[in-house]
Structure formats: structure tokens, C-alpha cells
Design goal:
Largest sheet of chain B: 4 strands, antiparallel
Structural class of chain A: alpha+beta
Number of helices of chain B: 1
CATH topology of chain B: Pantoate--beta-alanine Ligase, Chain: A,domain 2
CATH class of chain B: Alpha Beta
Order of helices and strands of chain A: HEEEEEEEEE
Helix content of chain A: 25-40%
Number of strands of chain A: 9
Oligomer: heterodimer
Radius of gyration of chain A: 25 Å
Strand order of the largest sheet of chain A: 1-2-3-4-5
Distance between the termini of chain A: 97 Å
Order of helices and strands of chain B: HEEEE
Strand order of the largest sheet of chain B: 1-2-3-4
Chain lengths: ~190, ~120
């Protein structure tokens, strides 16, 4: 009788250990998967934005009719978007092909639209990448190196300049906040 | 008479081996989870350092050989940063930016040289 009881106790101990081991393995797998995908998404946004800004070209945007606009970088108040023209990557190198890119908050997602030309006549022809999910709020600020502004361009002079700093702040639905400040070394002023 | 089954000593040894194996696997699992958390913290710390570097070069310049510290909320966590500028030559400045989850320990350090303006 006593042997049976001891066996039962040992079996119970082994069952508890095994089940807790399985439970912690499952929760660990979920944490690792969630954190890894969050980190991947975070780095993707940081690297994509930095690359686009680093290879930006200070030439004027074109409107829907193909007419030259005065500004080279545009973000108007409360639109939650900004657009400019940049060089695109071709394999590991950057080609001389220019395209218009637009970062936009849409349906709680920050997306990057890459048009196929610097002057897209058809605004529906683009490839889209989702860079950040579950965004509740987006805040954009731009600087000329002296002060922050909530839109760009701020005056006729900055119409022909690329902002020195672009600050993108995203607040997720769980209230966690993230910000990226990208420095542009594009000093030239478009004539 | 031949005894069937295991003695208490054998059962104890088996349990000890099982316990050691389970402990080792537990440690492996927890270290994997910690690595994922550290990876996230380092990614955030790298971005905070890049943000600080952009500000030091523009809106918040440091005048030579001065150290500055601060705290920033990022991704639901509180990070501490400290930045220092040292004059290394007539043309260049060395900027060191350290980021940590406390003031004492650093998880990321960015060290770079910028041209004097």
C-alpha cells in the first residue's frame, strides 16, 4: 500500500513539473515571437525612413496634373502624412531612379507608399509596405535646425529646402510611445 | 527471494537527474526570453542614441567638454541617457552617448566623430 502511495506522489510531482515546464515553454515562445516581431518592425521603420531621407533628392513635387509644385517636401497640418522624392535601392546599391514616397497613417497603420515615378500621374499606382501596426496617434514635427514646426514647408524659403530634422512620434493603442528623429544632410536649396 | 521494482535510493537518484535536466531546460528557456527582451531594449536604446545624436548636432548643441544627462520614455520603458562631447582635434569633436535602463548600467553606447562647425 505504502509503495502505491509513494508512486502516486512521485507521479504527481513529475506531472506538475512537466505541465509547468510546458506552460512556461509556451508562454516563453509567445514572448520571444512577439518581441522579435516587434523589434523587427521597429528596426524596419527606423532603417527605411533613415534610408529614404539619406537618399532624398531636393527636387520639386508634382501635382496630380503633372504640374511642378513649389515645395520639395510636403506635410500639411492634420494630414498625418509626408511625401518627398528619393532614390530607390536596386539590390544592395542605390540606383539613380527617382521615385516619390509617402508615409501615411491609415487605418491605425503607418504605411510607406512607393510610387513608380517621381511624378505619379495615377495616384493609385504604388507599392505599399506596412511599417507599424496598432497606431493610435501620430505626431509629425519638422525643423529647419532652429525650431520645430508641425508642417512643412513653413514659408517660401523652406519650400525649396528639405527639413533638417524629421521627428515622427507614434503612440500605440497600449499607450506606448516611440519616436524617430532623422537628420537630413541635404543642404542644397532648390532654385 | 528476488525483489522486484526500484529501491528508494534508485528512485531518489532518478528524481535528482530529472530535476537537474528540468532545471537546465528551464534556464535555457528563460535565457531565450531574456535575450528577446534584451534585443528589444537594445533596439530602443539604439534609436534613442540616434535621436540624441541628431539633436546634439542641431537643436541642442553641446559646448565642448560638457556632459549632459536625461531620461526618456520609449516603448513603455524608462531609459536614461548621458552624452559627452570631447574636443579631439582642431577639426573634429568626439560625441559619446550612453543609454541604460538605470543611471548606473549602460546597454548601448554610441561613439562618433563630427566636424566642428
Amino acid at each position: 500500500m505504502i509503495e502505491v502511495l509513494i508512486s502516486l506522489v512521485i507521479l504527481t510531482i513529475i506531472t506538475i513539473i512537466t505541465s509547468s515546464f510546458l506552460q512556461s515553454s509556451i508562454s516563453s515562445k509567445e514572448i520571444v515571437f512577439t518581441k522579435s516581431s516587434q523589434t523587427f518592425q521597429f528596426n524596419l521603420l527606423a532603417d527605411t525612413l533613415r534610408e529614404d531621407v539619406a537618399h532624398a533628392v531636393n527636387i520639386p513635387l508634382l501635382d496630380l496634373r503633372g504640374e511642378v509644385q513649389s515645395e520639395t517636401f510636403r506635410s500639411t497640418l492634420n494630414t498625418n502624412s509626408f511625401k518627398f522624392i528619393t532614390k530607390i535601392r536596386s539590390g544592395k546599391n542605390f540606383s539613380n531612379s527617382l521615385v516619390q514616397v509617402e508615409y501615411q497613417l491609415q487605418d491605425s497603420k503607418l504605411t510607406r507608399k512607393q510610387f513608380f515615378t517621381p511624378a505619379p500621374v495615377d495616384q493609385d499606382l504604388f507599392s505599399e509596405t506596412v511599417l507599424f501596426n496598432q497606431v493610435q496617434k501620430m505626431n509629425l514635427q519638422f525643423s529647419d535646425g532652429k525650431a520645430w514646426f508641425n508642417f512643412w514647408p513653413v514659408d517660401p524659403l523652406t519650400e525649396r529646402k528639405f527639413p533638417t530634422l524629421i521627428k515622427l512620434t507614434l503612440e500605440k493603442e497600449n499607450k506606448e510611445s516611440y519616436s524617430w528623429i532623422i537628420l537630413s544632410n541635404l543642404k542644397n536649396i532648390y532654385d | 527471494m528476488l525483489r522486484k521494482g526500484f529501491s528508494l535510493l534508485e528512485v531518489g537518484a532518478a528524481l535528482l537527474i530529472l530535476g537537474l535536466a528540468v532545471t537546465a531546460v528551464f534556464q535555457f528557456i528563460s535565457s531565450t526570453t531574456l535575450s528577446a527582451l534584451n534585443l528589444e531594449n537594445r533596439a530602443y536604446a539604439r534609436q534613442i542614441a540616434n535621436n540624441r545624436l541628431a539633436l546634439v548636432q542641431t537643436l541642442e548643441p553641446l559646448a565642448g567638454n560638457i556632459q549632459r544627462t536625461g531620461q526618456e520614455e520609449f516603448g513603455g520603458k524608462s531609459f536614461f541617457w548621458s552624452e559627452k562631447i570631447e574636443t579631439t582635434s582642431a577639426k573634429f569633436l568626439q560625441i559619446s552617448i550612453r543609454i541604460g535602463l538605470s543611471e548606473e548600467t549602460d546597454i548601448y553606447e554610441l561613439r562618433t566623430f563630427v566636424e566642428k562647425k
